Predict the 3D structure of the following.
Amino acid sequence: MQKPRALFIVLFVTLVVFFQSLFGEFLAFDDELIILDNPTVHGLSLSTIAEAFTTYDPELYIPLTLLTHQVEWSIVGDNPLLYHIINLLLHLLSTGFVFLILRKFFTAHTAAICTLLFSLHPLQVESVAWISGRKDLLSSMFFLASIWSYTEWKETGRRKTLSLVLFTCGLLSKVSIFPLPFCLVLFDYLGGENLSQDRIKEKIPYFVLAALFLLIAIFGKSAQISDPLSAIILSPVSLLLTIKHTLAPIGLSIFYPFVSAVTFSNPQVLVASMVLLCICIGSVYFAKKHKAILFAALWFIILVAPSLLNMQKGGELGISDIYLTSDRYAYLAIIGPVIACGYFLKRTSWYIGIAPVAILITITVNQIPFWHNSDNLFRRVIDTGQPSHVAYTNIGGYAAQSGNYEQAELLFSKSLSIRRSTRNLFNLAQIKAHLGKTEEARSLYQELLQLTPSDSSARNKLLQLL
């Protein structure tokens, strides 16, 4: 199989599998914050472009990502189709760069199979099918383009400046790709080069760019990370869950809440730490004979690591909600295991990879519809058994809007059992009052006022029930 033909087949299969993602709606999860209710993207002018490059939105510095939304909004407004088309095109571009990179190590057949393992993995659905996943798609595309340019420079002596420009564009899309220079070191290792002073010196410009944008990111994140110790404690659990979803991508959802005690003695933390230790020891042990194993382990850890500080989100009353991971955080990390698979196929036969590709296609095709609308998205969270009060609250709101108050009562009650929050208390109190359960409604309003004495809406509702 020739390279152009193999690449065409890979891109065509990826396009066919993800084509249904084009018909999704804007979702009630960040799409309002980043696009629908964000005046910065509602138009393309010098002032809006300047605002995109001089502000955080709200905690991330993503000016190039916002610029793409400004262009889209100026063309189609709030019609989601173009946004989805651009997301899919970016995924196809990333897929193409992955193939070109892998082609430097493997035959066209093996590179094609491995690229499909990357592009069709169900974990990629979140980034592609969710419009707000744009920042991950755009930054990843520039990341991969930069690495490809770097490998070209290593071979021909050209395109190093292009690689640095592409890296800069990626950092302007989302800073989470800052580990790129470490990934370049890993590629040198995989290619048989020794770690030397010259190898480090040639990557200094990459490290300088990474440090600069990391400082910019820290200023935006400083107000968001209320308890960094929790992130450190739960890092093994988060990393192991991401590995699990990479190897067995079932039960995927937009939320993976952690509701147990955040302590070093938590059994989940202890077990995850032991398993990861065994994986690390095994990777080092087999490194002499199989470089790809250590490469895959280090690549995966390095590229998942930036997401570990994103565990704490939302919440109220001084208590953050804790989420172990998100599927999109593995978008680039998957490439490590994929390359390891490539070396296995190189020693055996590329035909072995056909079955895993077929399995991934089946799971991904079934996963994409969960991202078509908000109702599907949050019901998926509940169906997978995730203890997410946000999902129960949102589905309860949809039930109330449709007049199914008994169902709304059950859902709001479940949400409140997971997390006692002012929103949950107010929602359930309203439903209880509507159903004529006055005493229960009064009790909920009173509890709410104990938490937020200045809540005039709750006070007025309570007075109406007296």
Summary: The longest helix spans residues 80-102.
